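Translate structure to sequence.
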């Protein structure tokens, strides 16, 4: 069994800062679960353009308010506590944070834990199998 706390992730290499977000990678590839689990905060007033070409992601909002735009069809969705979205079709999207947004994010394949967004707003494919 793995038991871990957010406190022990803070100020380590598992706390990764992007331009508009900070992602605390609680469970990562080397935990060998088949997914990674992150506690992510998107900063108020920012917009984050994303496209995960090599991963699926589920995002569950637990704090804050924002808007999610599907770049391929123009559909827009309110993001607030209790809302989950799942990127099951390599969906290109933009997340607008009206307030700080606190999101629980699950990635498959798992991230190693130190990844930063590339210029498309995604992550490179995993180098080795899990
Ligand atoms: C919602 C989203 O994808 N934000 C970017 C950071 C990512 N969730 C991560 O690495 O935790």
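Result:
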């Amino acid at each position: 069994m793995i038991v871990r706390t957010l406190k022990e992730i803070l100020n380590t290499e598992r706390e990764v800062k992007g331009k508009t977000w900070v992602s605390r990678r609680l469970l990562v590839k080397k935990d060998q679960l088949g997914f990674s689990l992150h506690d992510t905060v998107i900063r108020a007033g920012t917009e984050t353009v994303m496209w995960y070409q090599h991963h699926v992601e589920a995002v569950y909002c637990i704090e804050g308010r924002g808007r999610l735009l599907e770049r391929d069809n123009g559909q827009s969705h309110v993001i607030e506590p209790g809302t989950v979205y799942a990127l099951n079709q390599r969906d290109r999207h933009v997340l607008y944070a009206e307030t700080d947004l606190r999101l629980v994010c699950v990635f498959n394949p798992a991230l190693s834990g130190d990844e930063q967004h590339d210029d498309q707003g995604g992550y490179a494919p995993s180098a080795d199998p899990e």
